[in-house]
Amino acid sequence: MANNTHEQDGLDQVRGRIDAIDQELLDLISERARCAQRVAQIKTEVDGRAVQFYRPEREVSILRRVKGANPGPLDGEEVARLFREIMSACLALERPLQAAFLGPEGTFTQAAAIKHFGHSVVTRAMATIDEIFREVEAGSCDFGVVPVENSTEGVVSHTLDLFMASPLAITGEVTLRIHHHLMSAETELGAIRTVYSHQQSLAQCREWLDRYLPHAERVAVGSNADAARTAAKEPGAAAVAGYQAAEIYDLEVLAERIEDEPGNTTRFLVIGKQDAPRSGEDKTSLLLACRNKAGGLHALLMPLAAHGISMTRIESRPSRRGIWDYVFFVDIIGHRDDLPVAAALEHLEREAQLFKVLGSYPVAVL
Amino acid sequence: MANNTHEQDGLDQVRGRIDAIDQELLDLISERARCAQRVAQIKTEVDGRAVQFYRPEREVSILRRVKGANPGPLDGEEVARLFREIMSACLALERPLQAAFLGPEGTFTQAAAIKHFGHSVVTRAMATIDEIFREVEAGSCDFGVVPVENSTEGVVSHTLDLFMASPLAITGEVTLRIHHHLMSAETELGAIRTVYSHQQSLAQCREWLDRYLPHAERVAVGSNADAARTAAKEPGAAAVAGYQAAEIYDLEVLAERIEDEPGNTTRFLVIGKQDAPRSGEDKTSLLLACRNKAGGLHALLMPLAAHGISMTRIESRPSRRGIWDYVFFVDIIGHRDDLPVAAALEHLEREAQLFKVLGSYPVAVL
């Protein structure tokens, strides 16, 4: 009992310190908000009304510095997330950012928008990716968030096509972890003879399917939602999809998180009227075209190699426009204002039949 | 230009101050996390391994104090939300809280769990409300979050029934804003002859429907998802539901946010092994029963009136158990440890044929 009283004193003391810290935090967060207001005021005086207060390169610099200086015990991701929210709240004081996303509410694209801008962003659901581009072009939304890679919704290539005709630039990237589940109207794994899903999802769960459903046929369909719909009707069928699909089509989840890579991520791009200034750790996305795929590609990429620029992604698409046979979407490491990148781009522009910088933007921090 | 340079100096100065503030914030948040670890360590020494580090009454006290002391310019809600996230991160250092919710991922119930516990909580999707109760009773999850009021998913009464047989207590409440939209396969409002939805949703949009669709018949169905499914098949039909339903059933949203009360909220309860200590601003939920509804109710509520206790909600349900004709779920203002409440409860217990305190818990802050 004496011991408990002693411990109680210890608890009271630590809790007293927490209360004092909270007061200091409140004061500092409030002062930070006032500073953000002051920044907005100065910028408005200089640039007039149309000024954009959001500076992606400064935000990521702050997040990177905080992660780097973090003494623990919280981990760097967690601390960066807290600062993302503090910055989001301060920025929203002037005028909340509006971000268009591919609806409906609750999609991965909305989650990506919130992860990128923090919870003080106003997210606006659009029915199509075209609409997202239009809203941002018209200035009704400050930014748009579009899926671009590894998505299971069958919309990715469409995003890339839209960039060809759009004046918009890429101002950021977001990555999200995605999980896949096996679901069916059957209640036993042993009853599954066919597994439906989007091709990408099937590929992402290959090892699990090889191991637990080696004899089941895999059938690629247009989307994971389509797969779930089929699984609901067909005896012996299962689908690989998200929880939502299981609920909608009243399927039983037979196995959770069956993706081979636990870090399976989907990438999204943030689009806006202009790209981002240098942050020190950037990517640049390019749109290139040549007439002949086989021979042309080598020539096209030569300037990058010559200037020691690394590519993180290349994707070829048959052109819809008929002038070129193929267009390439290429992501490289570095900002277009970095000297070696600038030199490589100048070289590329001379060589390529179509050359467009879609934007330079900070590598995702969170 | 000279002026711009002057302004640039001003900007640099404010940004320098922001950077210094961020460093201080980082240090304070880290120290707060260390304090939380110290609290956990002391508690574990005293109480052994099974100790619960989450103290709902202390969390809400901190949030209320922060809101009260907030000097601006951020509004109180925003500041409380930031502190919720900081506390959530600190608490998760020991062991992340696990909260069971009514799945699938992306439901309102999951949103409620995250709103209540912050983003560092681990949310676990359950297929049914029964399962949520079971997981918490078994100790596999620390807490559960269940819908209880004004829900359009047809599950609310089931939640109340489960409390009758469960040893679990209510440890908190959460409220969420909910929006309704009118959707149809038709593309013109003029073509709508029937509007389907859950009865509660129809009621919540009555004024809008009276005004814009005065001649359309309103038909109550089991859930908003059912309504959307019907609207997809039937010419001239529309549904009142959330965005998700429009997407799933490929309906056009003809009008957004048609609920009469812009502040339309749904309430959720947090359940756990024990209820919450006093926070100074609490509610208590009771389960009462009597044999005869009409005469019994007056007698049942008399002790509350006699002790000056306010009710915020009363709901009668026919009893499934056959011993009583009716059971009442009653929410009152105050904690069961508050003197007038304690006196009223003692009185009630003598009068009622069934008397059960489901829990005392802090009034929702956010």
Automatic annotation (TrEMBL), chains A, B:
Pathway(s) the chain acts in: Amino-acid biosynthesis; L-phenylalanine biosynthesis; phenylpyruvate from prephenate: step 1/1; Metabolic intermediate biosynthesis; prephenate biosynthesis; prephenate from chorismate: step 1/1
Entry GO CC: cytoplasm
Record bears the keyword Isomerase: yes
ACT domain ranges (all copies): 285-362
Entry-linked InterPro entries: ACT-like_dom_sf (IPR045865), ACT_dom (IPR002912), Chor_mutase/pphenate_deHydtase (IPR008242), Chorismate_II_sf (IPR036263), CM_dom_sf (IPR036979), CM_II_prokaryot (IPR002701), G/b/e-P-prot_chorismate_mutase (IPR010957), Preph_deHydtase (IPR001086)
UniProt keyword list: Amino-acid biosynthesis, Aromatic amino acid biosynthesis, Cytoplasm, Isomerase, Lyase, Multifunctional enzyme, Phenylalanine biosynthesis
Catalytic activity: prephenate + H(+) = 3-phenylpyruvate + CO2 + H2O; chorismate = prephenate
Location in the cell: Cytoplasm
A GO MF term: prephenate dehydratase activity
Name used for this protein in its record: Bifunctional chorismate mutase/prephenate dehydratase
Organism this protein belongs to: Marichromatium purpuratum 984
